[in-house]
Amino acid sequence: MEACSPAWQERLSAWFDGEGPAHERQAVEQHLARCVGCAREAARYAPLREALKAQAATETHVPPELRARVSRLAPRSRPSFRRRWTVGLAAAVASVGILWTSWPGGMNDALAMDLERHHLKAFSRATPCEFESSDPDAVKAWVAREVGYAVDVPVVPGATLLGARRCRLHGQLSASLLYRHEGGTAMTLFLPPPGSPAAREAASFAGEGTRCTQGPIGERICVAPRGGGQAALAVSELEQPVLVDALARLAP
Amino acid sequence: MSSRSFIERALEHLPALRRVGRRLTGSTAEADDLVQETVARALERHDELRDPERLKGWLLAVQRAVFLNSRRGLRPRLEVLEGGLGKEAAPEPSADLEAELHAHTLSSGMKAALESLAPEWRDALWLREVEELSYEEIAQVQGCPVGTVRSRLARARGAMLDLLEKEKSHGSL
């Protein structure tokens, strides 16, 4: 039997896909009328396509957990400017030294996005932590061993320490501590290495006092400067005072 | 397009992102992480999407970039095995291969044939036949010229049909 040559095979394949210029498509149609090999080849493309589609039809399921993880990436509706301003002012008045700002503005967007993603990604797992322990000393020892620097692991009232994970902030390995508050709400404390770009950027954002913002994905982010270019960051959907309180539990 | 409506539209394409993600990572759990990372990255960049009608192709391109970035340095770059498969004299096609294809869509032979293709050929074939992307969109996803996509598809089809023919002649299709 006459074989379909590689050159015609390529034209034939493009013709089958409805691609290629009109003159080429016309040439293929004329060729098909006289070439048994190519006609035979073309006849096998459609069943191959159907077979592959049938294979894919078994892979259309998306687990609700994945859908929820992706849906959470959508920014929550933010309060109106007036309400944000009022809430911010009230918060500032209520907590002297604590500033509130509304994204965008202030915090580096890439850092804010990284923080939110690490937080959401960790808590979307069945086991959020790399190292699981509710013992602050054990978590502290794991961080020192695996991340390479000492951190304070605070006890946060109303929250359970789950453990710790490593993450990368601005490309540098950083420690994160994971907590779950009563009611199940997740919170991550990020403790970037002293002097690291993320720590310096966060400290610069915070200035003299603890400062909070809303990340692009919608989580609340609070930053506490810790002196010497260090900073600690809390990420959660919890209210700002809860995050500020958690950060205040860190040793000075 | 607002961030919220972008996510809503991206949700429609999760099955495709997951299917392709599984092929890239070889693992369902890793694919799910990759999908989440892809949508997060796409959300950051969604202002760059010029044609909202081509969201699926654009998301798959972002997914591939996220995947390659995550694997950079962890494994050798994918090799392009142009012309390496199915180029020897092909056996005479059987008269009923079309029917066999219909009847055995999920056969191990079908899967094995697909897996034996060069990755770029297999991906191009999958993106065209299953995800129904245009040549231009596949070129965007694969980061290559449209002409290369055209060539990959023709070779992938030829190789798949040859491999299935061989499988059949060994009685395992």
From TrEMBL, chain A:
Pfam families: zf-HC2. Residues 8-39 form the Putative zinc-finger domain. Keywords: Membrane, Transmembrane, Transmembrane helix. It comes from the Bacteria. The chain crosses the membrane at residues 85-103. This is Putative zinc-finger domain-containing protein. It comes from Corallococcus aberystwythensis.
Automatic annotation (TrEMBL), chain B:
Keywords: Sigma factor, Transcription, Transcription regulation. One of its GO terms (molecular function) is sigma factor activity. Residues 12-74 form the RNA polymerase sigma-70 region domain. GO terms for biological process: DNA-templated transcription initiation. Pfam families: Sigma70_r2 (PF04542), Sigma70_r4_2 (PF08281). Gene3D superfamilies: 1.10.1740.10, Winged helix-like DNA-binding domain superfamily/Winged helix DNA-binding domain. The keyword Transport does not apply. InterPro entries: RNA_pol_sigma-70-like (IPR039425), RNA_pol_sigma-70_dom (IPR014284), RNA_pol_sigma70_r2 (IPR007627), RNA_pol_sigma70_r4_t2 (IPR013249), RNA_pol_sigma_r2 (IPR013325), RNA_pol_sigma_r3/r4-like (IPR013324), WH-like_DNA-bd_sf (IPR036388). Residues 112-159 form the RNA polymerase sigma factor 70 region 4 type domain. Belongs to the sigma-70 factor family. ECF subfamily. This is RNA polymerase sigma factor RpoE1. It comes from Corallococcus coralloides.
